[in-house]
């Protein structure tokens, strides 16, 4: 189990060290357009899960959306502070 901040730190480290086999590195290399499409795709899956699926499936879809949002943040060079200042 990890928090939003812990996952973001982990993904930032992946971006920095670029380990072989990292899906995050591949997603970052795919560029902002592809990263944005993934955010939209996962958001749609969250919506469907919220209407039709279990709490567990919804939670899983939300976790994937958070991951995709973080990849997009890293793709654009944003930090968590850049976002948190608007919360
Ligand atoms: N939390 C996640 C996470 N959530 C979602 N995903 C990716 O998103 C996919 C699910 O989304 P999709 O519905 O788009 O599935 P898909 O289209 O079949 O997947 P792709 O072909 O696009 O990979 C998963 O198969 C993962 O590839 C994640 N990939 C990685 N993480 C975490 O990120 C960290 C770094 O991971 P790596 O970069 O892979 O080492 C680790 O802690 C991982 O647990």
Automatic annotation (TrEMBL):
GO BP term, pick one: L-histidine biosynthetic process
EC supergroup of this enzyme: hydrolase
Record bears the keyword Protease: no
UniProt keyword list: Amino-acid biosynthesis, ATP-binding, Cytoplasm, Histidine biosynthesis, Hydrolase, Nucleotide-binding
Compartments where found: Cytoplasm
Reactions the enzyme catalyzes: 1-(5-phospho-beta-D-ribosyl)-ATP + H2O = 1-(5-phospho-beta-D-ribosyl)-5'-AMP + diphosphate + H(+)
Gene Ontology cellular-component annotations: cytoplasm
Pfam families in alphabetical order: PRA-PH
Transmembrane segments: none
Superkingdom in the source lineage: Bacteria
Enzyme Commission number(s): 3.6.1.31
Pathway(s) it belongs to: Amino-acid biosynthesis; L-histidine biosynthesis; L-histidine from 5-phospho-alpha-D-ribose 1-diphosphate: step 2/9
Entry-linked SUPFAM superfamilies: all-alpha NTP pyrophosphatases
InterPro entries referenced in this protein's UniProt entry, alphabetically: HisE, PRib-ATP_PPHydrolase-like
A GO term, aspect molecular function: phosphoribosyl-ATP diphosphatase activity
Primary location: cytoplasm
Family: Belongs to the PRA-PH family.
PANTHER family noted in UniProt: HISTIDINE BIOSYNTHESIS BIFUNCTIONAL PROTEIN, HISTIDINE BIOSYNTHESIS BIFUNCTIONAL PROTEIN HIS7
Protein name (record): Phosphoribosyl-ATP pyrophosphatase
Species, as recorded: Amycolatopsis japonica
